[in-house]
Every structure is written in C-alpha cells, then in structure tokens.
Design a protein that fits this description.
Order of helices and strands: HHHHH
Largest sheet: none
Oligomer: single chain
Strand content: under 5%
Number of helices: 5
C-alpha cells in the first residue's frame, strides 16, 4: 500500500511537470507567433510603400518610352525615306506600351497584401494558405519586373521580391 501512495505522488508530480512544460511551450509558441506577425506586418507595409513607388514611377516611364519609341520610328522612317501614317504609328506604339503597363499587377499585388493581412488575422489561418498568397505576390512582382522598361521600376520590383521572400521565410515557420 505504501508503494502505491509513492507511485501516485510520483505520477502526480510527473503530470504537473508535463502540464507546466506544455504550458510553457504553448506560451513560447504564442510569443513567437506574435513576433512573426509583427515582422510580416512590417514587410507588408514595406510592400505597400514600394508598390506606391512603382505606381508613381511607371506612368511617367511608360510615357517617356512611348515618346522615345515614336521619335526612333520617325527618325528611322525619315532616314529610310519612308512614311508611316501618324495614326497608324501611334496605334502600334500604344500596343507596345500596353505591354509595359503594370497597373493590373499593382492592383492584384495590393489585393494580395490585403488578403494576406486578413488571412493572418483569421484564427484558422495556416502557413500554407499564407505561403500561397505570398507566391501570388511573387508572381505579380515577377511580372512587373519582366514588363519594366525603366531602371527605377525594375529596382523597385526587385525590392518587392526581396520583401516577399522575407515574408515567405517567416510563413515557413507557421503551422
């Protein structure tokens, strides 16, 4: 009987230690989660700042590319002695500059940033879902980079990719 009481006391002590360990572990996970969340929010704010810079720069860059292209075509035609109807030339240039338009990508990137924020606030969110959204943000940054016809816009797109990668690294640690 005495051995049974000692066993029960030992079992109770062991159970208490396990509970304390689990409680401490859960507390640590919650603290780490808050740290990841704060860091992600900082990166999202940086993505918004860089997106605004791209949005600000791409229209003037597009217009400059439009004008430069128009002048080059005009000079080339003059050199070759050819003529191209002004309206036809403008149509072709508009088609070319449309390929450089990143407004849709910027709009989608902003939407993904918003979705990432709301998903991160959801108690049921998972790292996989956040990782998928980060992948979508990365696709938009890649498209902006491939369309960029201006060094500043390209530099900002690279900055976007860098911030998105930081987010993806954080998301990998979320269960």
């Amino acid at each position: 009987f005495e051995e049974s009481a000692e066993e029960e006391e030992l079992e109770a002590s062991f159970s208490e230690l396990i509970e304390l360990g689990l409680s401490s572990w859960q507390e640590m996970r919650e603290t780490e989660g808050e740290h990841h969340k704060e860091e992600d929010l900082t990166h999202l704010a940086e993505l918004e700042r860089i997106s605004a810079l791209i949005e600000e720069k791409w229209l003037p860059a597009r217009d400059q590319a439009f004008e430069t292209t128009r002048l080059r075509i005009t000079e080339m035609l003059d050199t070759l002695g050819g003529k191209l109807e002004e309206s036809r030339m403008m149509q072709e240039i508009v088609v070319m500059t449309d390929k450089w338009d990143v407004s849709e990508e910027i709009a989608r990137l902003k939407s993904h940033i918003s979705k990432f924020r709301s998903t991160g606030e959801d108690a049921e969110s998972s790292g996989r879902k956040l990782d998928f959204i980060a992948q979508e943000m990365n696709r938009e940054a890649n498209t902006i980079l491939s369309k960029a016809n201006d060094i500043e816009v390209s530099d900002h797109a690279i900055d976007l990719k860098t911030e998105i990668e930081k987010i993806r690294e954080q998301v990998q640690n979320i269960e």
